[in-house]
Specification:
Blueprint (H helix, E strand, L loop, with lengths): L2 H10 L1 H10 L4 H27 L10 H7 L3 H24 L7 H28 L1 H27 L4 H25 L4 H4 L5
């Protein structure tokens, strides 16, 4: 199966694609280099996407100000966040799956997560083009993309851990993700950085 075939099948038959990706005999160095590449590409595309969306004065609302400071002014930091996100998601997939008697290896999960982010390069290009054509249509595509990401991550977990039901993994994954996210926010707040106030949710 050639790379173009794998990319197209990632949208409709992700489990089949992960069967190929996970079985690839790759060294750690190769996978890390791939993670660096997709992090750079997606950071650049996300930076471009946000410049086009939030750089105009009418879009500079208080709600987006911390996000704009982070994304628009610090693309290098965005790359670091993208790279860290890959390993954060991989850790959730690997060790979260093991909590439910999964047997997946960290390297195999990493292969799957890196592949998802590789496909996201092409999706982000498409979203950027859609944004220039129709921002409302692009908004719907962004929602669909986020749903697709959650679903293929569930498919990746099913493949690497040997689970049977993608739907159950999908639901449990969403609950587990929000639990971890809430825990991280609590830790950040405990360290003295009031996240909710920064993004405008204070009373």
């Amino acid at each position: 199966m050639n790379p173009t075939n794998l990319i197209m099948r990632s949208f409709f038959s992700p489990k089949l694609v992960f069967d190929v990706v996970v079985k690839m005999e790759l060294q750690w160095r190769t996978v890390i280099e791939a993670a660096l590449f997709v992090s750079v590409m997606n950071a650049l595309l996300t930076h471009l996407f946000n410049v086009a969306t939030y750089s105009t004065p009418q879009n500079q609302e208080d709600f987006f100000e911390p996000y704009m400071d982070l994304v628009l002014n610090k693309p290098l930091l965005l790359f670091i966040l993208e790279f860290g996100k890959i390993f954060f998601i991989t850790s959730l997939l690997t060790f979260g799956g093991r909590l439910f008697s999964g047997s997946g290896l960290f390297l195999n999960s990493l292969k799957g997560v890196v592949w998802i982010h590789f496909v996201l390069i092409f999706i982000n290009i498409g979203l950027f083009i859609a944004l220039q054509l129709n921002i409302d249509f692009a908004s719907y595509l962004i929602v669909l993309t986020n749903f697709w990401i959650m679903w293929v991550l569930a498919e990746c977990a099913v493949k690497t851990h040997g689970f049977k039901s993608t739907f159950i993994v999908f639901i449990v994954g969403i609950v587990f993700f929000f639990f971890v996210l809430a825990l991280l926010i609590q830790v950040i707040d405990a360290l003295g950085f009031n996240f909710l106030n920064r993004v405008g949710f204070s009373d």
